Amino acid sequence: MKVLTLALRRLAASLPTLLLIIAGMFLLLQLAPGDTVDALMAQMGGGDPALAAELRRFYGLDVGVAAQLGRYLMRLVTLDLGFSAIYGKPVATVILERLPPTILLMASALSFAFFFGLVLGVIAARRVNRWPDTLISTLGLVFYATPSFWFGLMAIVVFSVYLQWFPPGGFSDITQTLTGVAAVLDIARHLVLPTLTLGLIFLAIYLRIMRASMLEVLSLDFVRTARAKGLSETRVVARHVLRNAMLPMVTLIGLQAGTMLGGSVVVESVFALPGLGRLAYESVVQRDLNTLLGIVFVSAILVIVINFLVDILYARLDPRIAAGS
Amino acid sequence: MRAAKAYLRSPAAVIGTVILLAVLVMGVGADWFYPGDPLGLAGRPLQWPGQNPRFLLGTDSSGRDIAAQIVHGARISLLIGFVATSIAVVIGIAIGSVAGFYGGATDTALMRVTEAFQTLPNFILLLVLVAVFGSTIETVTIAIGIVSWPPVARLTRAEFLSLRTRDFVQACRVQGLSDAHLILREVLPNALPPVIVYASVVMAVAILLESALAFLELSDPNVPSWGNLIGLGRNVLRTEWYVSAIPGVAILLTILGVSLVGQGLNDALNPRLARAR
């Protein structure tokens, strides 16, 4: 329970941060040339000033900036993110529709990067400075330097155009209606390439961190004790080293939640996935500032929630945290 | 001197330096290698590399020379990377050193702001900045600098926190030196090495951010950026994939060079760490 209290206290501490973000972004977007009504009028092919004034009143743009911000914050408490003029729906609805593909993509990319980062890091650390280590470390450097959108495009060329193993984009096959297991498999097939594309850079980071932290933990006294007890090397690594060496990687998940969300903007655009990232891109292009602000709010919450989960996970892995507080 | 020797003894650092120098030569000598506008019409569109000896790397879908765009793109990427990194490092050091030196309420307030920036995904903040201020090369560069400073601030703050209570700082305090002198002349020089090493990471990320933005056609369309070319090549990806492939390799090599140099600097400046590895 101590763990939960601690994590909840961290969660409460992030509320002022959230407020700061929303207020800052709201004021920043006031500087944008043209508002929702301008974009709407341009889409309709123009209109008279009376209509513009009417629309501004409808969208609550007829009062001062401070009053608008106050209203927006009041509505946020009830999770009302306003109305998207471009999509003709409440912003909350638009975002909720787009959230599942992004969460699925992030979860699968994270699992992919975490699992293979862990395995490769352990292999590299156990064969340190020999050829498996050199190979893995070099691969890590190259993956780190690969722009994700470019890797995605090249993966489409190889795996979709030439080999035709995976579809080049989309979230599911729209030419046929699938149900049950078939639908799940269909979505999984569509997510293979985006997962690899988004996960690649994190794989590179995780394997490097895992290798370094394995090497550090392997040199500690308790490992020597475990070896002196006569445990086999595999058992030493699996039971004693791994759990301790994983801690820096778990910290990184929280730190990089935002980077991953940002990365999904690009990856979703490459693979035409109908997710939150693509919505962010579309709302910039279409100047749908209300939706953009909503996305900022939701992505900040997403990052905070991921950090909350990481705090709990971290405390479970490292009992010293719960005991120390 | 010892650091320089250690740096040159590491093969990774040497490879990185060579790559980075090659990109630098391309960028500096761009007008000499390929005089004239790299975005101007050069010949028949979509010629494969090697098809026409005049175009070493072929032409894109608008009939522009890809090799010329790569060479001129090196200048843009390095310039954006360098300027954006400088902006991020200056903001980060300013905020981190004040927060770490004074502590207390100043520290809390500045770290709240830093946290806010770190909670917001930096690419999404970048999108917002571009949406608000437009996408000329200047605004994009400044925007990348603005989204990249928080880790630098945290690093600087941590260094200041551990340095500010050391004896040599206390000695200067007793002499009645001003806070500005203490921060700039005494503590900062000691806090700088890890920040300089981290700047290589910031630069790599800055180059990647610009190319991603250009790929999404949200960066300046009037400069020969590698990301722009990848974005254009996307339309002919199924058949003429080389248009996207070539600039991607250029980005990859540049980032690789920057990371290797950073790693070499890290090992050379932290000899204790290098030996442990």
From TrEMBL, chain A:
Q: Where are the transmembrane segments?
A: 103-123, 135-163, 187-207, 249-272, 292-315
Q: Which UniProt keywords apply?
A: Cell membrane, Membrane, Transmembrane, Transmembrane helix, Transport
- Its source organism is Roseomonas alba
Q: What is this protein called?
A: ABC transporter permease
The Swiss-Prot or TrEMBL record describes its family as follows: Belongs to the binding-protein-dependent transport system permease family.
One Pfam entry name: BPD_transp_1
Q: Any idea where this protein resides?
A: Cell membrane
- Superkingdom of origin organism: Bacteria
Determine if 4Fe-4S is one of this entry's keywords.
no
Q: Where is the ABC transmembrane type-1 domain?
A: 99-314
Q: How does it sit in the membrane?
A: Multi-pass membrane protein
PROSITE patterns tied to this protein: ABC_TM1
CDD domains, per the entry: TM_PBP2 (cd06261)
Q: Which SUPFAM superfamilies match?
A: MetI-like (SSF161098)
TrEMBL record, chain B:
TM spans (from-to): 12-34, 78-103, 123-147, 195-216, 241-262
Task: Write down the InterPro entries for this protein, in alphabetical order.
Answer: BP-dependent_transpt_permease (IPR050366), MetI-like (IPR000515), MetI-like_sf (IPR035906)
Tell me, in one coarse class, where this protein mainly resides: membrane
Keyword Transcription regulation appears in the UniProt entry: no
Localization in the cell = Cell membrane
Q: How does it sit in the membrane?
A: Multi-pass membrane protein
Q: Which domain of life is it from?
A: Bacteria
Query: Per UniProt, which keywords does this protein have?
Result: Cell membrane, Membrane, Peptide transport, Protein transport, Transmembrane, Transmembrane helix, Transport
**Domain ABC transmembrane type-1 stretches:** 74-262
Family affiliation: Belongs to the binding-protein-dependent transport system permease family.
PANTHER family, alphabetically?
A: D,D-DIPEPTIDE TRANSPORT SYSTEM PERMEASE PROTEIN DDPC-RELATED, OLIGOPEPTIDE TRANSPORT SYSTEM PERMEASE PROTEIN APPC
**This protein's name:** ABC transporter permease
Instruction: Give the species.
Output: Roseomonas alba
